[in-house]
Amino acid sequence: MFSPNIFDTSPSMFESELTERLRIDDDYDTKSGTEMDAPSGDDQDPSQRPKRKRYHRHTQRQIQEMEAFFKECPHPDDKQRKELGRELGLEPLQVKFWFQNKRTQMKAQHERHENAMLKAENEKLRAENNRYKEALSNATCPNCGGPAAIGEMSFDEQHLRIENARLREEIDRIAGSAAKYVVKPMITSFPHLPGGAFNFGTQSGFVGEMYGGGGGDLLRSVSWPTEADKPMIVELAVAAMEELMRMAESGEPLWVPGENSMDALNEEEYLRTFTRGIGPKPLGLRSEATRDSAVIIMNHVNLVEILMDVNQWSRVFCGIVSRL
């Protein structure tokens, strides 16, 4: 049994007791209780060493009963503490401190568990973020093989870039195949054409005559290329393709801004930049070229078919075709 005056000590004793109990780990419940204070300085014999504080431990039954009550009511009032203390043979203040320590312990356990879960989730998100960063830094376009541009262009623009890259690869492949058949240097004129074949005159009806009357007879008089001329024809085709690519990618001074946001070809600059693959320009032939860029709703294959079929491009580009 405890002495009745054991709780008549100063409040500092209970504060020190509470501080001491807060340092106790999860097994504090087997050690909770009260401390017996040493005698005061006036009553203590100077020749004797100070006595160590006695620590009262609750019995197993008291702990079990208070834990069961804690599950039902973690914050008992004064009446409940007195009744519980009377049943267990404890003072209400002892019961109060036990419940305070229990609540502190449960709160600490909950915080440790929550912190562990948050830390694990944070590590998981950090690892996932690093994987995404690495994947984005090493991302490549599956079609063109270049670095992937994410969020920088629209879907249509990205699709057009992919198609352009594929067409460039196709052009390079065709150019490489055509280069195998080039066996002699570029010549400046067709050997099978007569000397005055391109001298059609300067009359205004040149185009009509070329496709209608005398021009048709002249074209029929031109002999067809032989097998020996095929390498030269292939080389001319490759040169024309390269010229087209350079003209499409060039700006001023080759192209001069014109009307309706279109660029007009500077013929003088063109003649200085590109050499004539089939000889000098025939007399009376006037060259005109304009360019413009737009996005069309059409597959590139269909567009190439239109350009290669005279019946189709004459209908599509009827505004610039006189007659056939």
From TrEMBL:
Does the keyword Transcription feature in the UniProt annotation? yes
What's in the keyword line of the UniProt record? Coiled coil, DNA-binding, Homeobox, Nucleus, Transcription, Transcription regulation
Task: State its location(s).
Answer: Nucleus
Q: Which Gene3D superfamilies match?
A: Homeodomain-like
One molecular function GO term is: lipid binding
Q: Where is the composition biased (Polar residues)?
A: 1-13
The record's section on Pfam families has: Homeodomain, START
Region annotation (Disordered) maps to: 1-57
Q: Does the keyword Nucleus apply?
A: yes
Q: Domain Homeobox: where? A: 49-109
Q: Where is the composition biased (Basic and acidic residues)?
A: 18-34
Q: Which residues form a coiled coil?
A: 103-138
Identify the main location.
nucleus
Question: CDD domains, alphabetically?
Answer: homeodomain
Q: Name one GO cellular component term.
A: nucleus
Query: What are the residue boundaries of the START domain, all occurrences included?
Result: 226-324
Q: Looking at the UniProt feature table, which residue ranges are given for the DNA-binding region?
A: 51-110
Similarity field? Belongs to the HD-ZIP homeobox family. Class IV subfamily.
Protein name per UniProt: Homeobox-leucine zipper protein MERISTEM L1
| Native organism | Hibiscus syriacus (Rose of Sharon)
